[in-house]
């Protein structure tokens, strides 16, 4: 299964950590959203990519891995199947929304060819973040689903 996802992350207290080549990066407490995609098969398919983010023990390869090794806790993934590359579309729509504030420049987007400044955002809205992200995915013509971190089984990402 291929697609795009938004990983909803809780940071309970302000933190600073080294994030690979980005160096020392600061994060305010609150809800953060990491935008990613999965376009491969096997370990790089959508189900396995999301499951990896929910796993505590893993090798650190990507910017998000550095953040998730801190007190940042992944809560759920809001995702959609898609054969087209929709990661940058989702990130750009979030960047345009007043409900999200762009995170550190280059975070998760160092290989982006469409000029995205970041693929990490802090949610500043008063409503529920899930509805905001689901709305953006729907506006992109995608059908959003949610998978909670505590989902033990992940058949087709335990669609809800």
Walkthrough of the structure:
The structure is a single chain. The chain is globular, with a radius of gyration of 14 Å. Strand 2 (15-18) and strand 3 (24-27) form a beta hairpin. The chain has 160 residues and is α+β, with helices and mostly antiparallel strands. It has a six-stranded antiparallel beta sheet, with helices on both faces. A two-stranded antiparallel ribbon has the order 2-3. It has helices spanning 46-54, 63-68, 87-96, 129-139; strands at residues 3-11, 15-18, 24-27, 30-38, 72-81, 100-102, 120-123, 145-148. It has one domain (3-158). It contains four helices and eight strands.
For this entry, give a set of tags.
160 residues, alpha+beta, six-stranded antiparallel sheet, two-stranded antiparallel sheet, 22% helix, 29% strand
Task: Please summarize what this structure is.
The chain is of the alpha+beta class. The protein has helices at 46-54, 63-68, 87-96, 129-139; strands at residues 3-11, 15-18, 24-27, 30-38, 72-81, 100-102, 120-123, 145-148.
